[in-house]
What does this fold into?
Amino acid sequence: MGGLSWIHWLLIAAVVLVLFGGKGKISDLMGDFGRGVNSFKKGLNENKEDPKVINAERADAPKDTVQR
It folds into this structure.
């Protein structure tokens, strides 16, 4: 107990590479994340007055009178 296995060292190395692997990697990742969140919010706000209905009957469409 107390020793680190090769999997632990691999995970530590991966974290160090992500944090210190090059200039601006973290800021690039956070910028991409921020653009994704903004795009998601913009998509939610679009077409609020005209929602899309898929595979549903229109409310004003005539009903089928044939019973099965």
In short: The longest helix spans residues 25-45. Residues 47 and 53 are 12 Å apart (CA to CA). Residues 6-43 form one domain. The radius of gyration is 26 Å.
